[in-house]
Amino acid sequence: MNRDIFIRNLTKEKIEMSPKGRSANELSPEEFEKCYESFFDMIFEIADTDVSEIEGYGEFDENNKAPFESLEAFIKDDMLGDPTEGYWKNWKEMFGTTFLKEDYYNEIASKTLHYAPFCEDKRFLANNNTFFCNMIVGEDGKTYCTDWGRAGIMDYMMDFAILDLNKPYLLVPEKLFEYAKKRNIEIPDFKERFLCMAYYKGIVTLRWHASIDDLESCESIVKSINALEERMNRL
Predict the structure, then answer these.
(1) How many angstroms from the chain centroid is the CA of residue 1?
(2) Domains within the chain, CATH numbers bracketed
(3) pLDDT band for position 15 (50/70/90)?
(4) What is the pLDDT of residue 78?
(5) Which residues pair with 126 in a beta bridge?
């Protein structure tokens, strides 16, 4: 089944696949400050989807199945696995030949796995691609995701972590912490879950940018990753 049709069916057609509006990537920090709650509302609306009939964790495969038995298995396979084909075949050869440094990569992967137990059993639908270029602020004031190609079953904190990785100066987790208190939304183990998702997505995104020799993005991502722990401790 086509992915968009699958997502529409799964969400009881509450997801708008072809929204009209402005690219979220065009928002200034001041504009985001005024409308960030619509981004958070969107992520929680997605997470509210009933996924009880779907087994497993991870990004949906070509059959729209979540193929991993645990969240840890999903992120460990993505971070540390050795694919036998495809883009990431022999990816560890990048160590020493690109920006990607083996000691640093393994350090962040270890931190991710340290926090993984806090995210286990957190089974939600996540877009898993909430970079600002993939979102639209609609004419109705709501925010919409336009790309569901990496959607799957995982902790919804993934979608918040991607927002922050994309533009850390917007202070997404700091805003989310206050938003949750104001809305009386309980997020158990907030800091640990955010760190797990942020370290995981940060290191695999770093790997991607290193693979295309995008030095500027690599340096920005490392700076963002290195600041995460201190930011969480200030909450």
Answers:
(1) 24
(2) 3-233 (3.90.1200.10)
(3) confident
(4) 97
(5) 152
Distance (Å, whole) CA 203 – CA 228: 12
Give the pLDDT mean for 3-8: 92
Instruction: Return d(Cα 16, Cα 115) in angstroms, integer.
Output: 33
Nearest to 40 by CA among 169, 197, 170, 223: 170
d(CA 180, CA 175): 9
As a whole number of angstroms, the distance between CA 190 and CA 174 comes to 11
Question: In angstroms, rounded to a whole number, what is the distance separating the alpha carbons of residues 105 and 206?
Answer: 9
Q: How confident is the model at residue 130 (pLDDT cuts 50, 70, 90)?
A: very high
The residue type of 46 is: I
Cα dihedral 227→41→50→5 (10° resolution): -100
pTM of the shown model? 0.96
Q: Is the pLDDT of residue 17 over 90?
A: no
- Burial of 38 by CB count in 10 Å (0-12 exposed, 13-18 middle, 19+ buried)? middle
205, 100 Cβ separation under 8 angstroms: no
pLDDT band, residue 14 (cuts 50/70/90):
confident
The residue written with tokens 């940060």 in the block is: 202
In this prediction, residue 139 carries a pLDDT of 85
DSSP state of 22: E
List, as one string, the DSSP characters of 65-112: ---BSSHHHHHHHHHH---SSSTTTTGGGGTTTSS--HHHHHHHHHHH
Q: What is the largest CA-CA distance in the chain?
A: 49
